[in-house]
Amino acid sequence: MTQKITVIRGDGIGPEIMDATLYVLDQLGAGLEYEFADAGVVALEKHGDLMPKETLDSIERNRIALKSPLSTPIGGGFTSINVSLRRHFDLYANVRPAKSFPNTKSRFGEGVDLITVRENTEGAYLAEGQEVSADGQTAISGTRITRKGSERIVRYAFELARNTGRKKVTAVHKANIIKSTSGLFLTVAREVAAQYPDIEFQEMIVDNACMQLVMRPEQFDILVTTNLFGDIISDLCAGLVGGLGLAPGANIGEHAAIFEAVHGTAPDIAGKGIANPCALLLAAAQMLDHIGQPQNAERLRKAIVATLEAKDSLTGDLGGSAGTMDFAKAIASRI
Ligand code: NAI
User: Fold this and answer.
1) Whose CA is nearest to atom 21 of ligand 1?
2) 135 and 148, same structural domain?
3) Which of 52, 213, 240, 299 is most deeply packed, by most CB within 10 A?
């Protein structure tokens, strides 16, 4: 049986890494049918809209999208397309795994295998009530945390732990100082944790969590946290395992899910055919897990690891000299 997914080829290095990813997915025989849709600068040029209605309709229909990075033009009143997409489909869970891979430039050769689960729709990124006083001396921005938002993200983290055999969930917060918003998140996290006695629950203040992640990342399994802390912590975790070229992310809601690389459009190397396709490939593996193809997800991850181990077709960011498609072909040959 085939499954139709929406594919957004994106801007900058987007089309290059997407072509490489689809090549590998085809070799995997995952039975996927692609519905291509435009977004970003490409869509603005073609349709006069950064996020055309046809693209939103396509995601709405297929409920699953694989997306390359998009650039939002700076200035001109454009809202970030990524933020708009998350809001439009209420993609509340941003799931970012960080795992040690062989032959990367990471300081930790091995032992990191954690997932950051970040609340994606509220908190400091709500950007409500932003104000700068008339004299330019004072600026204010609002943060809103809800019981509903906190409960569903913490529950998502615990369910993810149960479904993937993980043992521990760490709630990261700053409730000692930000007693209202971070306090509510922590209160709800404790309540939800009590319903999962089979999973160890740990609480950690965000500044300590950052230090612990750098000192002893192997102690973490799943981290769950609010929007701003999650954004920063997940990039820190990407750094622990060798950078953005290996960092995938899923944006998951009740009715739709969008899978993407954490990195951006890399304008400095766009069009040269030298971008590392692994982050998008790893996002595709997350997508395969999500659509009920865990064996194919594992085959794909193993082929990526085997290619990193063999070190024969790596892109420049990993110390090699191969192109994007050669890297993808080497991965596909190991499936
Ligand atoms: P970036 O992630 O595009 O690039 C940062 C550095 O990492 C650059 O030196 C780039 O060459 C390198 N890099 C990134 N991905 C790579 C890959 N796959 N292989 C090898 N090297 C790679 O971040 P930057 O420059 O801050 O953002 C550029 C554009 O991307 C901006 O317009 C931004 O809005 C957009 N962006 C889009 C995102 C999305 O669609 N999810 C996420 C982040 C940024």
Assistant:
1) 275
2) yes
3) 213
